[in-house]
Fold:
Amino acid sequence: MTKILAISEANVISFHAMALIAISEISINTHDIAEISGASKHHAAKVLQRLVKKGLLGSTRGPSGGFYLKKHAEDIFLIEILEALEGEVTVNDCPIDNAICPFGSCLMGGICTEVGNKLMDYLRSHTLYDMIKNVNETKDVLKTIKNL
Structure:
C-alpha cells in the first residue's frame, strides 16, 4: 500500500526515541529503545548517535548507562529532531523537483506545497513536550521501561 506521507524509518525511530527518553524517569539504553519502538538495535544505535552528535541527546556508558535529553522537552522543536537526521528541510513547489513544469502549472494544483508548508509550520511550532503531553499510554510505556 502506498503512503501519502512517507517518513523514513530513521525519522520514525528518532521521534519515538526522543519521546521515550523524554518520558522516562530512568536512563534508557539503545536495546530498550529498539525493543519498545520495534526497531532494529543497530538502526536505533545509528539514529541515537546522530541525535547525540547534533546535541539533542547526551549519553552515559556502563551497565546503568543510557540516553538523556540535553535540553528540556519544551525547548526541543520537532523540526530540530527531523533536521538532526536529514539536514535542512525545504518545501519544493514540485513533488518531483522539476524546475519548470512541462504543463506550465502544477497538475496537483499546489497541494504539495500547501501540505509541505503546513507540515513545516507544525514542526517549527511544536516541541517534543507537545508531542508527549497527551500520550494516553505514558504510564504503560514507563512500566515497560522499568520492567526491561
Q: What stands out?
A: The domain at 9-147 is CATH 1.10.10.10 (Arc Repressor Mutant, subunit A). The chain has a mean pLDDT of 86.
